[in-house]
Amino acid sequence: MSAQLQTLVDRVRENERAWEAAFRANVPTYDPDHPDQPAEDQYMGDYDEMDTERAHDARKLLLDLSTELDALISEMEGGR
User: Which of 7, 22, 47, 57 qualifies as a FRET site for 40, CA 20 to 30 Å off?
Assistant: First the structure.
């Protein structure tokens, strides 16, 4: 059971690492630590587009993981 949960956590972490790499590759001045503007003005359009896409992908990932967690919980409750 804990291996299955670790797999889910690893998927979330890998997804975030992949997005971070994509931002760094496509937005030359990307700075994730800047509180107000994560890229220079000329790259903010690219950043905003990628950020919107990341939000949609993250939502899908979380919905998929929630479905998997529901299945795991049902499996655990059925095994009691």
Answer: 57
The residues, any chain, with a CB within 8 Å of residue 40's CB and separated by 6 or more, are: 29
- pLDDT at position 79 is 64
How many whole angstroms separate alpha carbon 16 and alpha carbon 58? 9
CA–CA separation, 49 vs 43, rounded Å?
10
The answer to whether the CB of 15 falls within 8 A of the CB of 57 is: yes
In terms of Cα–Cα distance, which of 3, 16, 8, 2 is closest to 69? 8
Say what the pTM is. Answer: 0.77
DSSP 27: -
Amino acid identity of residue 5, one-letter, is L
| Contact assessment for residue 25 and residue 19, using Cβ atoms and an 8 Å cutoff | no
> What does the alpha-carbon distance between residue 69 and residue 8 come to, in Å, rounded to a whole number?
9
